[in-house]
Write a structure and sequence with these properties.
Layout (H helix, E strand, L loop, with lengths): L8 H11 L13 H13 L4 E3 L2 H11 L1 H14 L1 H7 L4 E12 L3 H4 L13 E16 L1 H69 L4 H36 L25 H6 L5 H21 L5 E13 L6 E11 L7 H68 L4 H35 L5 H12 L5 E3 L2
Parallel strand pairs: 1-6
Antiparallel strand pairs: 2-3, 3-4, 4-5
Helix pairs in contact: 2-7, 3-7, 4-7, 5-7, 7-8, 7-10, 7-12, 8-12, 10-11, 11-12, 12-13
Length: about 475
């Protein structure tokens, strides 16, 4: 839709002077009723309200639907079982055994010896049953105690890993949401451009038919119209891809209406980003940094378990057994209590190698932690630069759009006066729509950079998603936000 800009005094004087030269003037072609009706419909279509899907609601759906997040939850539940498993090694271990024995023996005790005059004293064939209950209680086992620390560290790491996956899911949903919204806006702008060019083609065709236009202008207008159709098809494909990604993540297909944005000057940005050093100081709360730190705790606890291989173990053993047999000499009922001390002396160098391996893994974990810190700091710096650059770019584009609108108005007036041809008008119109598309894309990138900045310091929340949705809605004065 073309925006009319009032002429100043000098422009009015110039127009009067040009109108006084009929030799340079070109006859105007009056638009027909259908063209005027379509132009009015085009103007009205841009003022229709647009309802945006709720980004926090889509993220809430993704939390319930995403299969990778569900898998991570089950992984956390499985890891939490490490704690009772490690604790069980410190508690008494009770076992019960039993058995049945049939035996047929032939020896001097079971058959006797006639030559020696020794009779059989024990039965040769016996049935026997036996039962035993045994209890073992570790009195001192440094390895088993330290495995408790390993289990606790593993659970903490798994909880942070789940938080990392949830944050990544929020970023994925937000990216797909922003891409869908931007694609819908581009599609609306291109559709408006397409309708405008269609009217331009009809006017050029009518001027050519009346003999006041030329074929070059008609072909140029048709070429620009065909290019706008091609760009609109590409924007629709991008919108379908973004919606498909949202459906994969959330399980629902939200609806984004293809409509051109309203007055772009209504976009409000958070110009107060703050001190970059203050953001960098918060990178210790970055979820990837915290996860790397917890992984380091797991490795250190595991290294302590390895070192415990140098220490002895002390166990208390209690047992009760009962044997019932046809052979009275085999029958017994036993109660036993013992204390066993096990001292590792030599295992072929296994313990030393295991300790060295643990120390190397500690060093590797420290390097991984430093790397995550550096990545978080670099991410903060890049996002702050992108946000500052985005603000300056939006200011420049806003000024460029205003200038392009004035140039389009002047080109249309010049074309009516015969000072400009249709190609100049088409170039001015294409430049205006291209700048508006760049403005929309820049706002989308600004929104994603804002989310990424909060994610880099571990402060991404649902309120941030709501603010991003409000930012996108501010590009159109008629946009409505779904609650």
């Amino acid at each position: 839709m073309t925006r009319t800009t009032p002429f100043n005094l000098s422009a009015l004087v110039l127009a009067v002077a040009l109108l006084s030269q009929p030799a340079l003037a070109q006859s105007d072609v009056t638009a027909d009723d259908q063209a005027l009706t379509e132009l009015e419909a085009l103007a009205n279509s841009e003022s229709q309200p647009q309802t945006l899907p709720s980004l926090p609601e889509l993220f809430a759906r993704a939390l319930r639907h995403d299969s990778d997040l569900t898998r991570q939850r089950y992984e956390l539940d499985a890891t939490q079982e490490e704690v009772p498993m490690a604790r069980s090694q410190l508690l008494p271990q009770i076992s019960a055994t039993g058995g049945y024995l049939w035996q047929d023996s032939t020896n001097i005790q079971t058959v006797g010896d006639e030559d020696l005059g020794q009779p059989a004293t024990r039965p040769g064939e016996i049935d026997e049953t036996y039962y035993q209950v045994q209890l073992q209680q570790p009195l001192f086992s440094l390895e088993r105690w330290r495995k408790m620390d390993v289990a606790s560290a593993q659970v903490s790491a798994a909880e942070l890993q789940l938080a990392v996956v949830e944050q990544e899911l929020a970023i994925q949903v937000s990216e797909a949401y922003v891409k869908a919204y931007l694609a819908a806006q581009r599609s609306g702008l291109l559709e408006a451009q397409q309708k405008s060019l269609d009217l331009q083609v009809r006017q050029a065709s009518r001027a050519f038919d009346l003999g006041v236009g030329n074929r070059v202008d008609l072909l140029e207008a048709q070429s620009r119209y065909d290019q706008a159709v091609s760009d609109a098809v590409e924007a629709e494909n991008e919108l379908d891809n973004a919606l498909s990604e949202l459906e994969r993540l959330t399980g629902v297909m939200p609806e984004f209406q293809s409509s051109a944005p309203g007055e772009l000057t209504t976009v409000t940005l958070n110009n107060d980003i703050g001190d970059p050093e203050a953001w960098i100081a918060r990178t210790n709360q970055n979820l990837n940094v915290l996860y790397a730190s917890e992984e380091q705790q797991v490795v250190q606890a595991d290294s302590s378990v390895r070192r415990s291989g140098y220490y002895p173990e002390l166990n208390l053993n209690l047992s009760y057994s009962d044997r019932v047999s046809d052979d009275e000499l085999r029958e017994s009922e036993d109660y036993r209590a013992s204390v066993e001390l096990s001292v590792p002396i030599y295992r072929g160098g296994y313990t030393n190698a295991s300790v060295r391996q643990g120390e190397k893994r500690i060093e590797a974990g420290l390097a991984a932690l430093d790397n995550e810190r550096n990545l978080a700091i670099q991410e903060v710096r890049q996002r702050i630069r992108a946000l500052n650059g985005g603000e300056r770019r939006l200011e420049a584009l806003n000024q460029a759009i205003s200038s392009s609108q004035l140039f389009l108005d002047a080109a249309e007036r010049g074309e009516q006066l015969g000072l400009r041809d249709l190609v100049d008008v088409l170039d001015a119109r294409a430049s205006l729509y291209d700048q508006r598309i760049q403005y929309v894309d820049t706002v989308g990138n600004y929104a994603l950079d804002t989310l990424a900045l909060h994610a880099a310091v571990g402060s991404l929340e649902s309120d941030d998603l709501a603010r991003i949705m409000a930012l996108l809605a501010s590009m159109s004065t008629s946009a409505q936000v779904a609650r």
